[in-house]
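Table S2 (continued). Query chain:
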Amino acid sequence: MSALTKKRKRSKLVIASRALLIIIGGFIAAYGLESVLIPNNVSDGGVTGLSIVGSQLFGVPLGALIAVLNVPFIFLGYKQIGKSFAIFSVIGIVSLSVGTALMHQVPTIVEGDTLLVTVVGGIILGFGMGLALRNGGALDGIDMLAVLLSRRSPFGTSDLILFLNMFVFIVVSTVFGLQGAILSAIAYFIATKVIHIVEEGLSGSKSYKIITTQPELMVETIRDRLGRGATYSLALGGYSNEEFKEITCIINRLEESKMKEIIQEIDPNAFVAVYDVSEVKGGNFKKHNIH
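Corresponding output:
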């Protein structure tokens, strides 16, 4: 078997595995809707939220509304983001639609306790949506609309997502009442946080930028105790014109407390800036023993 054939086979396997994970994500989100949120008069945001309202008002199957209302957003995703994203989104939205139909009669796993409903429902829904997004698809089209509008307005994408969902929750209040709309907003907020965790992983990384009077000792100690490498960049003070060695080091979240301990021990007055890093590739970035 030639290297090209192997590469194509591997590529097809990756695409198939991504599609399967998106399908699983769609079914998980459907389970969260049908077993927790909808039976307790709590909705989702976005197109799914509007579909739930339409289903309650007009008696149309929820899955059919989700599929139909997302069609223009899939077209938008195809034009603005790309063909593969649109195809994976079709897979995800169809999975969500079919999942809600198949799970319409599943037993309600949480009832009555409003706090528990929003937390459990938000976690299940967010996990399913995050799994789809992590693998290149989407289960809801409102984010695509926000991206397009942000290019033609002075508002950022996150501001527009918030504004569009405020409209959705106002519509939700007409069916589920004010309390239902508030609970829906809380569940949606929890879902977005879970989506973020699923997309980036629980073991996300941190980038430390350190300016210290003892850069060599700092780097040596980080290497000895954390097993992490670091790089130097020359920085010039804006006021003093003094030249510094700025240290950059990437660690995982589990090593953060040890890093702070090292900095405090060597130079309590060091200037430190910390950034979230969503993904690290290449180099020798592996988990090391902390000692």
